[in-house]
Every structure is written in structure tokens, then in C-alpha cells.
Amino acid sequence: MLTCFRPARTALVFRAAITVLLAGSAVAVAAQGQDTTVEGEIYALSGMTLTLTLADSSLKTVNLLPETLVLAREEALLEAIQPNDALGVAARREPDGSLTASSINIFSPQLWSRVRKGQFPMQSGDLMTNALVIESALAVQGRLLHLRYGDLVTEINVPEGVRITRILTERIADLKEGLRVLIRGTTSADGSLSAGSVSFEPAP
After folding, report:
1. Which CATH number is correct for 7-72+171-188, 2.40.50, 3.40.1350, 2.60.40, 3.40.50?
2. What is the DSSP string of 12-38?
């Protein structure tokens, strides 16, 4: 049976991962739609229609699409990261120019296909690197990650205690009433919300 962590933690856990998706790329809806993120508890699920209870106790209807990603996430160790794994690493730039990781996501292949690749600044001021772990001589060494995407090759320090999680692609059938979820999608002109991704964190 799926359960969930408290709302604040769920939002914190998934927001960084969800925001690495290109705006509008996760949902096949009109380009004029507004990018939207909502969090709530599943009140009802009927076919491809999901109803959420929001923080103010109001109900929100969400349309699920065939391409909607259902994402869960589990704890992982640095030692579990393998060459060619796709990572999303949030890191701060140190005075000497080096990068120090603050969080690491290991992407499922389905999510990686939708993620913005490369390296770019985040609203928090950190730098996001979405790239592949390099194999051969530049594989994971100690607490260093060596990543490559295209012409980008970067080294990131991973301190003890940094949270590393693996994002798993689940099924719509895994969504249950009472589960707290974070939804990233697009709101159309008529106010309807179509989900690009539905994320949850199962209890340990």
C-alpha cells in the first residue's frame, strides 16, 4: 500500500527535479497554455481524470494524458551511480571555481528523454547540471562525479550527507486515493489542467 510523507517534504523533494523539464515539453497541449505546478492529496481517480484536494480544501480536476509521466523516487548511494547513468545535479560554485553538489537525482530513461540537457543556472542561485556519467577513466572516483553532455565535461564534488535519489517511472495504476502528489502540467484557456508529470514519494 502506498503512503506518503508530509506535504512540505514532498514539495521540497520533487520541485527541483520537476523544474528541470523544459516548459511545455512534457505535455502535448496548446503552446499557449500556462505552465502550472500544484500539490495536493488525491481525492478521487476515475479513468484518466484525477481530482485533488488542495491545501485550502478546494478540489482541483486534473486531466491525465497517455504521455503523462508518473514518477516516484527512492534513496540511493553514491556507489550506486554507474557509467552512463543520467544525472541531475544541483551544485554551488565555490570561490576556487569548483562545484559542490547539494542534491543529486538519477533519472529514469523516460524522464531523461524530456529533461533539458547541459548546465544552466537555477532560480536558487545554484547551477543545475543534467548530463551522463562518463565511463572508463573518468567514471565515479571517490566522492567526485565526472559528467559529460555534448561538449560539456564537468567535475562535481559530492560531500558526505548529500541526498541522492533515483527517480523511477511508475504507472497511472500506482496512483491511489489519499496519496499526496506534486503535479506539473499546463493550464488551458478554459482553466483545465493537463498533467505532464505526477510525482510522489513512497514511504520507506
Report:
1. 2.40.50
2. HHHHHHHTTBPTTTTS-S-TTPEEEEE
